[in-house]
């Protein structure tokens, strides 16, 4: 049956029942049917003799039994932060890896990064651990450690060949995200950063559903200044609102480009509608800062180096430090603890 | 069946987001139209549709007819001027409010993609360009499945794959090339977008996102490299505000002078919200990227013809 366009599923409904699906029935529901998704499905009086009884009875019921397991697994994680954007290529992964490195500068912090971009994982390359693999021990899967206090999990570590395409539909992606949360031995973490793919679909719903019980601190939204990008980002903020995820703030990436030869500043992705700051005001969310374009960031990402270590005095690095301290402020931490002056 | 009168179907793919799939689709469509072909653009990026914004037709709504949904007309064909018609279909036209999130899981997206492929009334169209979301997931699987089932091999010409030069992007785009290989979609070629930015003040070219990654990748995978497209803020300004691209005197692109003719009015300010009159396809001819895409489009057409004779 074709979906009706006039009445799309209400977003609230999709978010409230993210993983529940009506089992496929072999016959129409009888009168007095308790509902194939209900707790009594297959067990109620009216189910006797119904051709669907066995199907309904075997369908999983109630909340996902794995959610308490995930909550227990993540009990030692103090802060869980999502990095989201409706638009692709705005710098979600770059910002996630920079944020991870920034948090990890303080040796007392332990940081984990979970890459939920299943079809286009970028974190391993940016962290310089592309060819690593995940190790499984009695306690679960161990993250790949970039530094002593910085661990990463991504599907890239599970691929036999580096360039393999991951041609997966939604349910399979959800399964892997669950596995990352349930089976990875994160240990005690101060920060778990979750990098997401662009859009508002399976991965986002799953991350939200699985982490809801253990508590998400909030989401950092990344954008670039031009309206084509803001348009999609507005949708993402709308999603966060409806899903009850707190928006910790908006970061504007690629906001200015200063020519290395003549120091002339160009707005490459011109903010014709107020840019990130304008959108933050419009949506009533904190604006964490604007980070200029620096070709050295792209280079550091390609070579898997920490931009913070390589170019600590660049304007982009200073801007990023400003963003990190505003973010620390938002999650109730003292910026001086998170990013000690060196 | 809505695609029966479509001659060639070209997918625009990329594993990576934000590399310019939609802007490449837009420019291919404009260039094909300028070459006299009738063009349709189908946007199946369901959670982040950009195509309506690209053609400045965000407020349009789709009309239902007995023959199917009618695409939005950007401009009609003009045989005298040698310009083909350009029509567009996107999920963006179906949303009640532009800021609304579309929170759909896979099965719903699959149904929507199928409906877009079967229920849109394209009529006679030379080229149908399909703009896709990043990745290799539900939309892509459903798209290729439906196309392989419902269209002839002559119709499904292949895919133009877009990347940016840096290794972080090509790493994801290589996955897309493997997706094409696995699903049997022919790769017409690779376009490297955002390769270099020329400072408007001193003409120094900076490779913001490195350089050369697209060509190396195309060579590695033995597919055609269609060309590199530099960053041109004037193109973006044209899309965002409807301002005709203007270049300082002496700007040369491939030896052609792109600067405004002497005595031309300056037009509205860069920040002005007033759109200059004229069709997008006319304004685009003043853009420095138009000659670049003219070559790319010619190569794509040749590749499509070669594919036809091969199959």
TrEMBL record, chain A:
This is ATPases NBP35. Belongs to the Mrp/NBP35 ATP-binding proteins family. NUBP1/NBP35 subfamily. Component of the cytosolic iron-sulfur (Fe/S) protein assembly (CIA) machinery. Required for maturation of extramitochondrial Fe-S proteins. The NBP35-CFD1 heterotetramer forms a Fe-S scaffold complex, mediating the de novo assembly of an Fe-S cluster and its transfer to target apoproteins. One of its GO terms (molecular function) is iron ion binding. Pfam families: ParA. Residues 16-44 are annotated as: Disordered. SUPFAM superfamilies: P-loop containing nucleoside triphosphate hydrolases (SSF52540). It comes from the Eukaryota. HAMAP family: Mrp_NBP35 (MF_02040), NUBP1 (MF_03038). [4Fe-4S] cluster 1 binds at residues 33, 47, 50, 56. GO terms for cellular component: cytosol; cytosolic [4Fe-4S] assembly scaffold complex; nucleus. GO terms for biological process: iron-sulfur cluster assembly; tRNA wobble uridine modification. Keywords: 4Fe-4S, ATP-binding, Cytoplasm, Iron, Iron-sulfur, Metal-binding, Nucleotide-binding. It is found in: Cytoplasm; Nucleus. ATP binds at residues 86-93. [4Fe-4S] cluster 2 binds at residues 259, 262.
From TrEMBL, chain B:
This is Cytosolic Fe-S cluster assembling factor cfd1-like protein. Component of the cytosolic iron-sulfur (Fe/S) protein assembly (CIA) machinery. Required for maturation of extramitochondrial Fe-S proteins. The NBP35-CFD1 heterotetramer forms a Fe-S scaffold complex, mediating the de novo assembly of an Fe-S cluster and its transfer to target apoproteins. It comes from the Eukaryota. [4Fe-4S] cluster binds at residues 199, 202. ATP binds at residues 15-22. Belongs to the Mrp/NBP35 ATP-binding proteins family. NUBP2/CFD1 subfamily. One of its GO terms (molecular function) is ATP-dependent FeS chaperone activity. One of its GO terms (biological process) is tRNA wobble uridine modification.
